[in-house]
Amino acid sequence: MLTTASELRTRLQHIEAEISRLQLSLQSLHEARTGVLEELRSLEGSRSSVELPSPAKYPVLTLPFEITSQIFLECLPEDPIRPYPSLDAAPLIFTRVCRDWRTVALSTSTLWNHVRIELDSDDRPGHLDSKWVALLDLWLKRSQTQPLSLAISNWSYTEPHETLLGVLDGQSRRWRDITFRLPFNSFSRLEEHASLPLLERLTLSAHGSPDIINPISGFRHAPLLRHVCFEAGMHPSDIILPWDQLTSVEFYGARADDCLELLELTPNIVSCVLDVQYDSHAVALGSPLTSLRSFTVSGPACWGLLRYIAMPALQTLDLSRCPLAVPNFSQIVQFVKRSQCQLRDLKIYVRSSATAQQAVYLLHLLPSLTTLHLVLADGDTGTIIFGAFKAVDSGRIILPRVESISAHCMHDYDDNQQQIMLDVITDALQIRGGLRPAFEQRFGAAEVVCSVDRQQRQSGPERGSPAAVAGVGRQGHGAACGKPWRAIDLRNWSHFFFRDVCVCISILFRQDLDFVDRRSIFECRNWH
């Protein structure tokens, strides 16, 4: 049925009438809105004197951009313990406080040039999937042009997302301190970069059986690279590096032959840390390591490694994680004699009283030593070693240049061992440095070692005052206090002159103590 012209005109009139009605309603709403706004402004004006300041008036929000940015940087942890970025920690938390802080945080590129992502660990299951790669990509873009410190750990045997290596490669010219813990085959897909101009430190760990034969070459062009750390699954033959320019290397979970290969490749290293877990057939190095100054070695196969090396420039030797046992003694002695080094700092673990005399013999071979740290099995071991400091052979004493001695006892010991050990230390100090006259002159007391019990610690005289210093000696350590003593602590109390050395004795015992570390410690420190 056709619609006539008159019907259409009638319909148009109805529409125009509805438009007019709605326009009037809209005008009325605008007028009402204006009235409400005026009332609101009037109300806010009358209450402005009692209301809290607006966010813009908070002093912290009035700081210049540069100062706020620097405050944010100071809030970053020096060594992040979180295995991945957290919304509740810096820098992400700054983006959630307010718009102004978010602007500052996103504009401060140095907030974003450090990132650590560790997956499939005890703290975070999973692997580097597309979501984590997208987060990493966004994070790196926020760092703009800053040098990068990255720690990317994918402990899962599942390969990380295929885009991960592309994201990392795209920022390779900004790498400075890099840690990659990835399935072995991931490293083979890293591009061989024309240059890594900023790379200084490199840590690599691999897991999974490799499918490749050719060594990894993605890190070979790094003119500033000085420090390299290999963790489990890596071998020197697996990778091409600028070996000659390295000055510091670390190798964990290693075989003895791999350690020797690493030392052969790095003739200019100054510092070396080796964790030798597996013994293997090895060949002695063709030449001594003439640049090496600091050497730390640990692991069950560490002693065998010493047969193959010589370090004539060595100054610091750390064997504190290698218990000295009878079968190992000849190896360390031969190493010292072969190296003919002027060792200054030694850390050594004396496993039992049976090896204490051997440790004393070793110390006689090191007259240049100035710092000695002992890890002791028990009090008897300490008594034997410290007793050697009393001996004077034809006018010669053990360690004539020593300036600092410390000892950490792995186990507690009984009162009798405590008494004997303190007497030995007292005698040794008096023989070597004329200790008693110096002490008497300084404090007007007749005794050498001091004691204080728990009650005195909590409510006794002021720490460091003469009244707080209770003399003990061969009369018995509890004589001055009248109670069984629980601790000896002279740190920051009194100074005993050991030649040019100030000696502070601090021996903390496990008996009934809940305010000290449950260890026994003896320390001698320099006088300055």
UniProtKB/TrEMBL annotation:
It comes from Mycena venus. PANTHER family: F-BOX AND LEUCINE-RICH REPEAT PROTEIN 6, F-BOX DOMAIN CONTAINING PROTEIN, EXPRESSED. Residues 5-32 form a coiled coil. Residues 455-477 are annotated as: Disordered. Gene3D superfamilies: Ribonuclease Inhibitor. Keywords: Coiled coil. The keyword Coiled coil applies. The keyword Ligase does not apply. This is F-box domain-containing protein.
